[in-house]
Amino acid sequence: MNQVHDDFRAPNFQLSTDLNEALLAPACPAERHSWEHLTAQATLVLPTNGCSIRSIITGRRIITTGVYASRKSGRAHPYESMNERAFFMHCEVDTNIVDYRAQPFRFEFVMDGTKRTYIADAVALLADGSVEVIEIKNDSRFLKDPDYQLKLSAVADICSQVGWSFRIFLREALYTPTTRWQAIEDIQSWAFTAYTTADVFQVAQYLYRRGSRELGEVADCLGRRALGIAKLKAMMVARIVDIDLSKPLNNQTRVTLITDGMGELV
User: Fold this and answer.
1) pLDDT in tens, 69-124
2) 106-111 and 42-45 beta bridge pairing
3) Which residues fall within 8 angstroms of residue 130, CB to CB, at 6 or more apart?
4) Is the dihedral of CA 158, 162, 163, 168 positive or negative?
5) Assigned CATH topology for domain 178-257
6) What are the structural domain ranges in the chain?
7) Measuring CA to CA, which of 85, 93, 102, 241 is 20 to 30 A from 57?
8) CB atoms within 10 A of CB 5
9) Partners of residue 118 on adjacent β-strands
């Protein structure tokens, strides 16, 4: 037991990189919130409070709207389609995503002599510190519009200039394979389950000594199995453990401790 305490580093719940800081990093220090110096033709408008740049819930729209409460990012994300809501669920569970925002900023740029604007559907901060700007679409029919294709190409080029990536998610990728989507729905639904620092340390010690183990087995070290499984699902949202999503969830599903490779929790 002493050796475990010597080798295992206590969990650090403080995120090392803030998403807002990651977004502001390429900006000119003198004008960090307007990004006037991104390029000669592009500006980024970013709210200083980290909220969505556009209010979606108006009560007058005939599309699906709502708010998704996120434990991972510590805020509510407005959405205007079920596909956006599904994407937020993915972000909540994906242990490679540290933080994310809905409609976080607006690009303003000139294309063919005309000023254009683009509001990203979402942005995600990944575990390696990289930033992804996300466009979410139902299907590929939008690609039939040459003007919109050019607009997205310009956005992708702007992102590339500052070292960000630009990705388009279609509905099919969000909901398939079905077993993965069902597991994501399940795990995120337990995101706000309460657990203690002692629970985290118990799980971390257990997995640190044994490596990847079965979900039911790890849950048992927290007491009652059903409650233990709920806590482990919340810990996945918090990026403490990783639960295998490749197969339907059951007591035999593999659980792995997330570390930085040096024995410390991320």
Assistant:
1) 999 999 999 999 999 999 999 999 999 999 999 998 888 888 888 889 999 999 99
2) antiparallel
3) 163, 164, 165
4) negative
5) Arc Repressor Mutant, subunit A (1.10.10)
6) 19-175, 178-257
7) 93
8) 10
9) 107
